[in-house]
What we know:
binds 3-O-methylfructose in linear form; four-stranded parallel sheet; single chain; about 350 residues; alpha/beta
Amino acid sequence: MPGTFRFSFGPWNIHEGADPFGPPVRPTLPFADKLALYKKLGFDGIQFHDDDAVPELNDMSSAEIEKAAQAIRRLLDSEGLLAEFVAPRLWEDPRTIDGGYTSNNEAERQYAIDRSLQCIDIAKTLNCDKIVLWLAREGTYIREAKDATRVVDKLVDAVNQMLAHDPDVKILIEPKPNEPMDLAYIPTIGHAIGLSYLTNDPARVGSLVESAHAILAGLDPSDEMAYALAHKKLWSVHLNDQNGLKFDQDKAFGSVDLRRAFMQVWVLDRNGYGNDGEFVGLDVKAMRTQKAEVATQHLANSREIFLALLDVVRGLDQARIDSLIAERNYELLEVEILRALLGRG
Ligand code: 3MF
Ligand code: MG
């Protein structure tokens, strides 16, 4: 039975337009103003970095962190919003220059683990059991710098410590093949799922697939999602789009390849994604050219395209598809899919 979908995004998706070559071009919107936009744009879930919820947490005591997180929880309640996940932002601190969990320096590695445990505490206060690990700096610029076998043990150990910290927490690994590192240790969903089975409680370790990250790995996002779904380990997604093998673009969903977007919706809908409360998450950036007043359109547009593609998916004649598959007439199946996408079905 196809379900209904709830949508989410992270506050970083409303941003100032800075890129590595130029400064911000739009004013910063205060966090509370961003929250007030969620419902208006059609979203119910917030994806947090730990310091989106509790800024400057490195300089705060546990009691101060708890108090700040409670204030955010009240704000969420007053807006009728839910925290979908919290992600430790490990890639900005000087102590994680050479990686967090896979750092060669034990003290710096311990910082990454301690910060992750604090992130779990923040999530708990926000009534949220999902922690996303985008393993940004867990890789190398040169292969000789780290022991690629030992790093797997280090990653597993870090995840085990998180699992032990809170019996309810679920860990979602978000793979990405490169950027900021030359080569990341967990580049695909297969790597993420493989890692989950090395941990002390594989049932609590799953994944988040981001469309652009799969494309950067030369893979089809819908296949990455399908693989995770087959393992019952697709617990969140970052839908977006990506124009070829270049920097991570986070373009609006469907904006580059509508058919590739259609297949993601097909796979999610046909596999009951969302039936256990999973959100349809976005990770999209407005173009740098966009003026401040219209710098949230990319979010509403991505949601609109998802729902439009959902109509196409649900409007297909399954008996017809089955018969074309049985005949092995994939040319006709393909053109009929294209016709449906063009509204000429
Ligand atoms: C990096 C990303 C990040 C992560 C986010 C949550 C900006 O390429 O996609 O989004 O998804 O930090 O871990
Ligand atoms: Mg992402």
